[in-house]
Amino acid sequence: GRAMTDKPLIAITGASSGIGEATAIAFSRAGYPLLLMARRLDRMAALNLPDAVLRQVDVRDRAALAAAVADGEAAFGPVDLMFANAGVAHLADIATQPPEDWDAMIDINTKGVMNTVHAVMAGMIARRRGTLVMMSSIAGRKVYPDHTVYCGTKFFVHAVSESLREYLSAYDVRVQVISPGVIETEVLSGVKDAGTLAAYQANKAAIGGGIGPEHVADLILSTYQMPQNALVQEICITPTRQR
Ligand code: NDP
C-alpha cells in the first residue's frame, strides 16, 4: 500500500552493493520510498530498508524492468528519480579477453542503461517531471589501455546522456551523468584478468585508495533535492591524487 511518506519514489538498479546500495541507504534515511533492483534479492533484503519494493531484475530483461516499475509505482506512485547504476567492469588485456566478456559489458552497461531509462521515460515526459541519473565513469571521459570495451560502454553512456538532456529538457526532465574515479565497492569482482587486477590494485594503492560510495550517494541526494529547475548535469568525483 501507500507509504507513510509523502516523498516520491526513487528507483535504483544495481542496489545490491556498492554505489547503488549506498544511494538506497542515503535516500531511505532522507525519507524516500524505494524501488530497488538487482539480481541478488537477498543482498537487497538484508539492507532492511522501510518502504522499499525489492525486485530481482536483470537490466538486460526489458519485461522484468517494466514489471518492477509497475509494482513500485502501484505501491508508491510514479518513479521521480531513476538511477541507472547497474554495471560490470571486466577490465582486461583486450587481445586475450574472452569476447563473451565484451558482450556482457555491452549488454549490461549500454543496453541495460537504455532499458532502465526507457522504462520510466514516457511517464516522466507525460508528467513533465522527473530525474534520470546515469552511471558513467572517469573511464567515460578518458581512456586506459586495459579498459578498452569498458571505456567504450562508459563513453556511450556519456553520449546518450547528452543527447537525452537535449531531448528531455523541453519536458523539464533532468538528466544527470555521474563519472566516478576509484570508489571502494565490489566492482573489481568483475576483473578476471590477474595482470589487470594487479595493476589496478597497485595504482589504487599509489593514489591512497578509493573513496567510500556514501560520498557518491550524498552527491546524488543533494543534487536531486535542488529545485526542479536546477540541474547538476555532470558529477565527476575522484580520489584527489587520481589522474
Ligand atoms: P558493485 O559491483 O559493488 O555493484 C554493481 C551493481 O550492479 C550490483 O548491485 C550488481 O547487482 C548490479 N548489476 C550487475 N549486473 C547487473 C545486471 N545484469 N542486472 C542488474 N543489476 C546488475 O560496483 P559499483 O557499485 O562500483 O558499480 C556501480 C556502477 O558504478 C557500475 O556501473 C560501475 O561501472 C560504476 N563505476 C564504478 C566505479 C568504481 O570505482 N567502483 C568507478 C566508476 C564507475 P547483482 O550482481 O546483484 O545483479
Describe this structure in words.
The protein is an alpha/beta fold and 243 residues long. The chain has a single domain (9-237), classed as NAD(P)-binding Rossmann-like Domain (Rossmann fold, 3-Layer(aba) Sandwich), CATH 3.40.50.720. The protein is built from seven helices and seven strands; from the N terminus they run βαβαβαβαβαβααβ. It has helices at residues 18-29, 41-47, 62-76, 99-127, 148-168, 194-206, 213-224, and strands at 9-13, 34-38, 52-56, 79-84, 130-135, 173-180, 234-237. α4 packs parallel to α5 (148-168). The longest helix is centred in the middle third of the chain and has 29 residues, at 99-127. It is globular. The model has no long low-confidence stretch (mean pLDDT 97). It binds NADPH dihydro-nicotinamide-adenine-dinucleotide phosphate. NADPH dihydro-nicotinamide-adenine-dinucleotide phosphate is lined by residues 13-14, 16-20, 38-40, 43, 57-60, 85-89, 108, 112, 135, 137, 180, 182-183, 185-187, 189, 210.
Describe, in short, the structure shown:
This protein is α/β, with parallel strands linked by helices. It has helices at residues 18-29, 41-47, 62-76, 99-127, 148-168, 194-206, 213-224; strands at 9-13, 34-38, 52-56, 79-84, 130-135, 173-180, 234-237.
